[in-house]
Amino acid sequence: MWWLLLAAVAVIAELFTGTFVLLMLGAGFLAASLVGLAGAPGWIQGIAFIVVSTLSLAVVRPWMKHRFFRGDPSTEAEFSVTEGQDALVVERVDADNGLVKIGGELWRARPYDATKTYVPGDRVRVVKVDGATALVWRD
């Protein structure tokens, strides 16, 4: 019966993470619980948990992530940053990383031209938004 309790805890915890990892473990816990209800010994219940969790993580989770987080306009984040906005460099911006402040929000940044480097205090302009990273340029 503790498998069922673990399944419930995993599913509830998943509501706070949104990664589908705990949901897949919850499926494994549920499978182990069902095998236990059928009268199987503990070691078989453990194998059921491992097999179902592993398959869920390897097959179902990637499909769910693709289905729910890619290509569905209703689930795409609405960014408050648009091309052409001004930004202030907070931490050195180079080809590897950087941090800028755009309209009161901190954003990861890289230079639009990878050979450029910007130092704290520089004023730059957002040329493109690539995921959660602003590509910036100084006029």
Automatic annotation (TrEMBL):
Main localization of the protein described in the UniProt heading: membrane
Residues annotated as domain NfeD-like C-terminal: 84-138
Transmembrane domains' residue ranges: 41-60
Pfam families noted in UniProt: NfeD
Record keyword Iron-sulfur present: no
Subcellular location: Membrane
Membrane-protein topology: Multi-pass membrane protein
Coiled coil regions, renumbered to chain: none
Key words of the record: Membrane, Transmembrane, Transmembrane helix
GO CC list: plasma membrane
InterPro entries documented for this protein: Membrane_assoc_protease (IPR052165), NA-bd_OB-fold (IPR012340), NfeD-like_C (IPR002810)
Signal peptide positions on this chain: none
UniProt name for this protein: Membrane protein
